[in-house]
Every structure is written in structure tokens, then in C-alpha cells.
Amino acid sequence: MNLTVFGATGGIGREIVGQALASGHRVTAVVRDPARLTVTGPGLVVVRADLTDPEAVRPAVAGRDAVLSGLGPRSTKDAGVAARLTRTVLAAMEAAEVRRLVVVSAAPVGPEPDDGIVDRAARALVSKVLKAVYDDLREMEAELSRSSTDWTSVRPPRLQDKPLTGTYRRVIGGFPPKGRFIARADVAHAMLATIDDEATVKQGVGVAY
Known about the structure:
The chain has a single domain (2-208), classed as NAD(P)-binding Rossmann-like Domain (Rossmann fold, 3-Layer(aba) Sandwich). Helix content is 36%, strand content 22%. It contains 6 helices and 10 strands, in the order βαββαβαβααββββαβ. The strands form 2 sheets. Strands 3-2-1-4-5-6-10-8 form an 8-stranded mixed β-sheet, with helices on both faces. Strands 7-9 form a two-stranded parallel sheet. Helix 3 (81-96) links the parallel strand 4 and strand 5 (100-104). It is globular, with a radius of gyration of 16 Å.
């Protein structure tokens, strides 16, 4: 496939690029600072673009089979970046008539699983502390719902920097019970796996160990 990846220098974005290249895909990585992208390999094209301008982004998505986005706030200070930059990506995709989009969101944005009281209390505390981050991701998902794209939002819990396992639980339209952690590498794996999975179109997908 011919893929475009946004947020390619972030933890999940780098994993998407690396795993996609290893699987034989052609990848266009859209970045603000090419020096920060440490992934290399045949089939990789690096594009520096202003993510506030859909016209600047449009050539990077035109003719692609799918677009994957690791864009998102790294802290409460960055809240607002996910919705704002995703609007740019959506506008560029719609102008270029590219339909398939897979983004990373977060577990608290989706339906709450039927867990025990300890898990519910922990989620409530995290959601309170990171309210601005999750509000940003909710607005991002609202933008997806209003778009004409065939989108999927992958919603992980707490992220870890651990090796790829390829083994995790996945719930379309929900979240795995007692799912507390997942590696960034496995989130990237899950995102790539949804590209040609029609059951995930216009759905949130919860992933966790």
C-alpha cells in the first residue's frame, strides 16, 4: 500500500513508519523537523509541511491508499493540537479525495467498560487530571464524525515503551475489560491492521493487553 503518516516523529508515529516499511508498504512521513525522524529505509519519503495549511499538506496525501495519524497532545499544555491539526488533515484528504483515515485517540474518549470499582476510580482520576487532553481528543473525534472520510479511531489506555508483541485485545465500539496498558509499538500494529478492516470504518476501537 501507499501510506501517509502524520506525527511520524512521535512514539506511535515512528512505530507506524517502521512497521509499515518492514511490511513492504511505501510510506510518506509528514513532519515539521525531518532531523527528528530516525526511521529510514527503502520506500520512505519524508515531507516537511506546515500542518496548519491544508493546501500544503494535500500533495502528501493525494493518491494514497490510506492516511494514519499519530498526532495528539503530549501534555495538558498541548491540548487543542489534536483537533486543530486533524482538521487540516481532513481538509487535505477531502480535497484530494482520499477516504481512509486511521487516528490514535485514548481509551477515556470511548465507552466505559464494565470494570471493577478500582479500575473505574482510577479512570475517573486520570480523566480529571487530563481533562483538557481528553476534551481535545473528543473534539478530534467529533471532527472525524462530521467528515466524509472512512475513519477509525484507535483508543489505547496507558502507553508503554516496550517491544512489539502483536498480541493484544481489541474491541470495536468498546474497550477491553480491565485493559490498563499497551505498548506504543502494539498501538501502531493495531492501527496498521485496521486499514483494510471494513468492520472498523467509522468506529472507535479499544485496544489493550
